[in-house]
Design a protein that fits this description.
Elements (H helix, E strand, L loop, with lengths): L1 E4 L1 H11 L4 E2 L11 E9 L4 H7 L4 E9 L8 E9 L2 E9 L4 H5 L2 E2 L10 H17 L2 E14 L7 E13 L13 E2 L5 E7 L5 H9 L9 H11 L13 H13 L9 E2 L6
Antiparallel strand pairs: 1-11, 2-8, 3-4, 3-8, 4-5, 5-6, 7-12, 8-9, 9-10, 9-11
């Protein structure tokens, strides 16, 4: 359940939520209790995944590569966010950064390239690869924001409340995973995206929160709304290509000169029907 709210109201919501949940450890020592989140969204050249949301398809997915910092040893998460009617679910696989280029080329990483030994992570990566192969999907857009997250005291995942600030979006057509952004569009201005997430039974206090602050549920799709805004500003052109600012073009040219294909000594392909 998503709501777009002004900054002063976000502070009041924080006070309310803090009586039920505790602050996520990653944001506890940071300014505004928020940690940075970066996602590289992957889509087909005709933006089929973006369009499925615009069309309001009940069953749809988004593909994104999520990272939190520039540190070379930090893991990268390949995520499939899936909507089935009114239910949202997510498959996630953590890999090492050196595996990214091979994955986007449709190959599975070696075991040494996985950042987690949990078999669910490998399954998540396999599903991701199946989708990019079917769609011929490639990196399209970098989305970033600062997330304040609240979780149950027992550390469970039954309830989660997030407040996302400074949502930015810009074209990114390579898998150069850096936090820096050049001339991004601010998708929701200075407004804050509030999300109420739960598994199982709807918490009664969620209903109290909505009534107390007179919240009105809305759509707040960071990737999709960012693409629409870039279309409006002629950054994304009708043929599906980006008109990059000169500073971005120069930075991309410098990166491309430095990028070398990652050698893959042992390549495995995902076959339809495997787990």
């Amino acid at each position: 359940m998503k709501y777009i709210i002004p900054p002063p109201l976000a502070l009041a919501v924080r006070d309310f939520v803090s009586t039920y949940l505790e602050l996520d450890e990653f944001g506890a020592t940071r300014p505004d209790f928020s940690y940075p989140v970066h996602s590289l969204y992957v889509d087909s050249d005709d933006f089929a995944l973006h369009q499925s949301t615009v069309n309001g398809d009940k069953n749809r997915i988004k593909l994104r590569i999520r990272f939190y910092e520039n540190r070379p040893g930090a893991p990268v998460f390949f995520e499939i966010k899936r909507r089935m009617d009114n239910t949202i679910s997510k498959d996630r696989g953590a890999v090492r950064r050196e595996a990214v280029d091979a994955l986007l080329a449709g190959h599975l990483p070696d075991a040494s390239q996985m950042a987690s030994e949990d078999p669910h992570h490998l399954v998540g990566v396999q599903k991701f690869i199946r989708h990019i192969n079917q769609l011929q999907a490639r990196p399209k857009v970098h989305v970033a924001y600062d997330r304040e997250a609240w979780m149950p005291v027992d550390g469970g995942n039954s309830v989660r409340v997030t407040l996302d600030r400074r949502v930015r979006s810009c074209p990114e057509t390579t898998a150069h995973l850096v936090a820096d952004m050049t001339d991004p569009v601010h998708v929701f201005g200075d407004q804050v995206v509030l999300e109420l997430k739960y598994t199982g039974r709807f918490p009664n206090w969620f209903g109290d929160l909505v009534r107390v602050f007179n919240l009105r549920q809305t759509s707040a799709a960071k990737y999709v709304d960012g693409v629409v805004l870039m279309e409006d500003r002629n950054i994304l052109q009708p043929d599906g290509t980006f008109r990059l600012p000169s500073a971005v073009r120069k930075a991309k040219a410098r990166r491309d000169r430095k990028v070398r294909p990652t050698p893959v000594s042992h390549v495995r392909y995902f076959a339809e029907g495997t787990a």
